[in-house]
Amino acid sequence: MGAQLKKVNTSISSLISGNHLVIRGNSNLKFGIALETFTPPGKSPSKDSIVRMARTAETLGFDSVYVWDHLLLGSRKVFPVLDSLTTLSYLSSATSKLKLGTSVLIMALRNPLVLAKALSAIQIFSGGRLVLGAASGWYEREFRATGVEFNERGRIFEDEFQLVRRLLNESDVNYSGRGIELEHATILPKSSTPIPMLIGGYSDQVLKRAGKLADGWISYYYTPDDYEDSWKKVKKSALESNRDPSSLHSVDIIPLAISSTFEEADRISREFTASYMDLPKNTMCTPDSSVRGNLSDCTAQIKRFEEKGVEELVFIPANYDIELVERAGNEILPTFLN
Fold it and tell me: Which pTM does this prediction carry?
């Protein structure tokens, strides 16, 4: 009997919170929080709120925070947006353990050398905590404003993705194309920790690109079943490119709403999505992906994401309510974290 108890105690740990016994599981699932770095018209991102939420997430055991990326969003009705990399640079000094991610950086809008130089500096000052989620983009107005051919964005993105990786990890880089000439280019100093580079997007072409080139795939508003279907395509592409699919990282970013009933949390999540988000058309992105309901509902839904291959689940707290982060950290994460 004593040996059996010892075995149980080595496989799980427990913690007392108030009068509740919370059992910590053996899950490898990681959790992150999306920060309010853009807002609808009439509101503005708050530096203090962003820092407070990041620090709260770190204290409660979340693994990462992610920021959004746009240069321009909206015209007559402008969506205020903070620069993603500048924000992460600031957060690198406001936190000490969190991974700092972009979801997703519109890479083609930036000069690759200038971008690589900025990424390298953030990686150094953060102590190797940067995660680059990148994509080809969808908002044509930004491309016109930066002089980048919108209809060629997929080809430009793939080319730049590979060039930025070379600049971050190699020396003596040579390149010629798109009006850019690099002759024996070397970025110094370099961090000793490589920056994970994930690709975001939904089309079969994008999923194939992620498996072929990236360190993983980052999605948004995908249900567990839809995520599994696309993740299989990413892994298939990796195999076809003679890469190990098990080395790739899978991330899904979804809303979180906790309430006393599923119906109430579902309403909160859908209203938040309608006021904040413009879900991409011709994709499987849906508010149905939300983790919502009471604590039991949320835990069951999270387990479904894990079963379907998601390795990192990033919550967008409905209305960016910090109480949701606190509840998730105190009442949900202990069920999964070792």
Answer: 0.91
d(C-alpha 111, C-alpha 132), whole Å: 16
Please provide the DSSP assignment of 132-165 as one string.
Answer: EEEE----HHHHHHHT--GGGHHHHHHHHHHHHH
SS3 for 295?
helix
| Closest to 227 in 3D by CA, of 199, 250, 204 | 250
DSSP single-letter state for residue 81: B
Instruction: Measure Cα distances from 251 to 10, 181, 308 in Å.
Output: 29, 35, 12
User: One digit per residue, pLDDT tens: the chain, 338 residues?
Assistant: 444 333 333 333 333 333 333 344 568 999 999 999 999 999 999 999 999 999 999 999 999 999 999 999 998 899 999 999 999 999 999 999 999 999 999 999 999 999 999 999 999 999 999 999 999 999 999 999 999 999 999 999 999 999 999 999 999 999 999 999 999 999 999 999 999 999 999 999 999 999 999 999 999 999 999 999 999 999 999 999 999 999 999 999 999 999 999 999 999 999 999 999 989 988 999 999 999 999 999 999 999 999 999 999 999 999 999 999 999 999 999 999 76
Q: How far apart are CA 22 and CA 7, in angstroms?
A: 18
Maximum Cα–Cα distance across the chain? 73
